Amino acid sequence: MSFAFKVITRERKLEDCKPLFDEEKYKKQLEELINLLEPLEKATETGLIVEEDLCTGCANCVVVCPVHASEDPYGMGSGKGPTIENPILLIENGVVKVINMLLCRRYGKERILCVACRENCPTDAIRFLEE
Amino acid sequence: MLIQATCAGCACLCDDIVVEKNGEFKVKNACRRGAGIFLNYLEGRAKPSINGETSSLEEAIERASEIIADSKKLAVYGMDTITLEAQKLAIKIAEKTDAFIDDCSSFCLGNFVEACLRGEIPTTTLDYVRDNAYVIIYWGANPVHSSPRHMSRYSYFPRGKNRQRGYEEDRFLVVIDVRKDHTSKIVKKNEVFIEPESDAELIDSFVKIMEGKAAKYSGEVAGILREIKKGDAVVFGGLGLRYGLEGDFKKFYNLLRKLNEFSKVYFIPAGFHSNMRGFNESLFEKTGYVNRYSFGEQTSRKEFEFSKLLTSSIPDTTLIIGSDPVNSLPFDVSMHLSKINTITIDPRRTFTTEISDVVIPSSISGVENGGTMVRSDGVKIKLNSVFENKFDDTYILERILERI
Q1: Rounded to a whole number, what is the largest CA-CA distance in chain B?
Q2: Which residues of B touch A56 (CB under 8 A)?
Q3: What is the structure's pLDDT at A130?
Q4: Can you tell me the distance from the alpha carbon of B248 to that of B298, in angstroms, rounded to the nearest whole number?
Q5: B74-84, pLDDT tens digit by residue?
Q6: Range with the lowest mean pLDDT among A37-51, A90-104, B47-61, B217-231?
Q7: Is the CB of residue B277 less than 8 Å from the CB of residue B296?
Q8: Taking a C-beta distance cutoff of 8 angstroms, is the pair B38, B367 a contact?
Q9: Nearest to B204 by CA among B220, B215, B193, B219
Q10: Hey, what CATH class is A46-131 in?
């Protein structure tokens, strides 16, 4: 896996690239890279970014999540509030909050690029880093 | 402490809300609109007043009762956000004083609720929709704004008993609206969004295609009819449909009847105040009409609509409960309120409380008082109180009823 990809998946940090910081000739590239990677600060481990200002709390993301449907079929899978502890997403104070990213299908070694939550967000409050 | 609550923010009446009261105050599972009601329940509260001067609650109730008792033509208005129990008391007050009574449904979805109650159109419950409906049609409604959890809790997204494969395989979404809104954004590639120039033309297209003739929207309509044949369908009609029909409701009801010869198609009105249907049902039970009723003349007429009464300067007193007509009605109409005695019962300061002769503060239904409300599909839902406030609408209306 390339260094760049590892930086995005947070396995490596930009600081790990010594020449970039030590050598004067890379100063411009370093500035550009810092700007480019700024959204990473806001994103979760799976690259999920929630814009709380845009969220209406409709819970479409919570209900469509395939993990929620299989782990909590009679709660979130059926459109109701969660009956399991630590779901991936939860509606709190009217907006979606990321609670437990470890359950997300985009996380870990067997990850897949699932976008169900983003696809069904009517207000574009959810986006992913790679987009 | 965790408290199970019901949100009375819209006619979805979500009963899976959890309020966390220990330490930080949190509201879980409620949409932005609903959570705001719980989180800001102490903000902008109304205070009892008589002619703009602060008074005690009892004095305000006493003065309101005197004004009502002295009035010759009283109009009772609002009531769409209060409990069924309080609505029944308001209807009793109107009956006792031979008053006019009306709510927002006269310019909202009252016609559709009336048709459902009279059995003119086939209707069902939202729980049936979740378990069985395949084709979900939003016609002139934008639930993302009006009832944010409508799609995720009852219609398109949840898995149901006979719809276990989720929205991708077990549901088909149709959105009909005059513009692309947030609801239409959810329509996927192989589903349908129609932007009709006229609802009447679209209805004609459905009828013509069923008769095997060519029509303006033949491509989209033929696709929808093919899907309707595969399973139960439900039409959620909103204000866009109500006004798009331009008064010709029969045309739409005939379409629903015709579609039912074809497959099972139900209708549920969508997108209104939390207990508007409750008021319609209570008044219907009592009088046989859902709104704009005169207890003096024992009948319902278009002229008895609250806005028409105001512009005709018929009432000399109004009792407004849980509504803000100065905000929601046009200025040319609401300005008439300043010329007559206005009594307002409301938990919060509103434009209407600012111009009222008597203001009686009440508690917020679902937050400070329990009771019963009726969901948009006609199912009764119980409310719990999260905080205590014994001066609710029922208490106030009982006191007024005793004194007039």
Answers
A1: 70
A2: 31-33, 144-145, 148, 182
A3: 66
A4: 26
A5: 999 999 999 99
A6: A37-51
A7: no
A8: yes
A9: B215
A10: alpha beta
In this prediction the pTM is 0.91
Q: Which residue intervals of chain A bear CATH 3.30.70.20?
A: 46-131
Q: Per the CB < 8 Å rule, is B26 touching A92?
A: yes
Q: Which residues of A touch B (CB under 8 A)?
A: 55-60, 62-64, 69, 73, 77-82, 90-95, 120, 122-123
Q: Tell me if residue B237 falls in helix, strand or coil.
A: strand
Q: Tell me, what's the ipTM?
A: 0.92
The answer to whether the Cβ–Cβ distance between A120 and B34 falls below 8 Å is: no
Q: Determine whether the interchain pair A59/B26 forms a contact, defined as Cβ–Cβ distance below 8 Å.
A: no
Calpha distance B19→B14 (Å, rounded) = 13
Query: Is the separation of the CB atoms in A101 and A113 below 8 Å?
Result: no
Instruction: Choose between A1 and B33: higher pLDDT.
Output: B33
pLDDT band at A131 (very low <50, low <70, confident <90, very high): low
Contacting residues of B for A93, CB less than 8 Å apart: 26-27, 35, 39
Domains of chain B: 46-105+274-403 (3.40.50.740), 110-269 (3.40.228.10)
Query: Cβ contact (<8 Å) for B32 and A56?
Result: yes
